[in-house]
Amino acid sequence: MPVLEGVKIAIVGVCEGRNAVDNYEAGSDLSSVRKHLYSMFPGNWGVKVADIGDVVPGNTVADTYFAVKSILSSLLKKGIIPVIIGGGQELTYINYRAYDALEQTVNLVSVDNKFNLGAIDNPIDSTSFLSRIIMDAPNNLFNYCNLGYQTFYNSQDEIDLLETLYFETHRLGELLQNIEIVEPVLRDADIVSFDLSAIKNCDAPANYNASPNGLSGTDACAIARYAGISDKVTSFGIYEFNPKYDTKQVTGQLIAQMIWYFIEGVNYRANDYPFGILDDYQKYIVPNESETLNFYKSNKSGRWWMEINLNENNKFKRHALIPCTYQDYLSATEQELPERWMNACKKLA
């Protein structure tokens, strides 16, 4: 591991696609991403970024996973945000396991047209990693949210299961109608995983599983910036890039732009909650028939949170403030409990 003193963001390539179903050459050559990233002008940034190179495939996939987990754990312990370029999306599970050393529960947001639940008894791959995240010990997952799923790619049983677990899902149509709905979701995320199959084929063709419908490249860059500007996000991964199908390097260029926007977002973090002090926020108390809700508005950024009352020694204390919108506050004043607040309460009950 190179010396990374003062570094805030580290770019990590992972050239491992053996478990990327139908997309086995994913991550095999990341040079086009770097070519386009290094050709762009930086913004007026104060954050220091390092590119620590690529993790090459080991003799076995398990060898690669071990190396990736070790590198990510080391970066996280140093307070450095890894930006991972892959590689199969099952690397999300390895990224998640890298947080074991921090001994804290985490929130995962996956931008994907599928949930990738698969079967828990199957070997891990890009279509089944979510089941392993949910079921494997130690279970450090507090919340999961999918952004951009397409109903015809996911069974009703899977949709019902995620609802039963009080997880959050947003269909592609919701995002296309208003991309800003992702902001409070990403503000609450620790890990953000972006599968390129969530982007429509014409904007990101370098993926065998690409679909004619999906997010635009503009949407993808907006999501990357929202992820970067989130004070809570500590890792960001872009997966399933297969250079074999990127003859004009359109996808490599888009990934580079997504990374640029993520770095831009990190540079403009407001250091709101969990870094700010609640005394510096405007507090709004909303009486409700069943419970009194406390809302907080940041004087620095104008962003909103809603509070769940937990004991001081509760292990989920870091999840007690849930990002929300001004509209959630207005709905609460009309006696409508925000869905994100209710789901969090059910998880903590």
What is the CATH topology classification name of the largest domain? Arginase, Chain A
The CATH top-level class label of the largest domain: Alpha Beta
Main sheet specs = 8 strands, parallel
In total, the number of strands is 12
Beta-sheet strand percentage? 15-25%
- CATH architecture verdict of the largest domain: 3-Layer(aba) Sandwich
Q: Which bin fits the share of residues in helices? A: 25-40%
Tell me the span between the first and last alpha carbons.
Answer: 43 Å
Tell me what the structure shows.
The mean pLDDT is 94. The chain has 349 residues and is of the alpha/beta class. It contains 11 helices and 12 strands. 32% of the residues lie in helices and 19% in strands. Helix 2 crosses helix 3, helix 3 runs parallel beside helix 4 and helix 8 runs parallel beside helix 9. An 8-stranded parallel β-sheet has the order 2-1-3-8-7-4-5-6, sandwiched between helices. Helix 1 links the parallel strand 1 and strand 2. The protein has 2 domains: 259 residues, Arginase, Chain A (3-Layer(aba) Sandwich), CATH 3.40.800; 71 residues, no CATH class.
List the helices and strands and how they pair.
Elements: E1 9-14, H1 31-39, E2 49-55, H2 61-77, E3 81-85, H3 91-97, E4 106-111, H4 129-135, E5 141-149, H5 156-164, E6 168-171, H6 172-177, H7 182-187, E7 191-195, H8 217-229, E8 235-239, H9 250-267, E9 281-286, E10 293-298, E11 304-307, E12 321-324, H10 326-333, H11 339-348
Parallel strand pairs: 1-2, 1-3, 3-8, 4-5, 4-7, 5-6, 7-8
Antiparallel strand pairs: 9-10, 10-11, 11-12
Helix pairs in contact: 1-9, 2-3, 3-4, 8-9
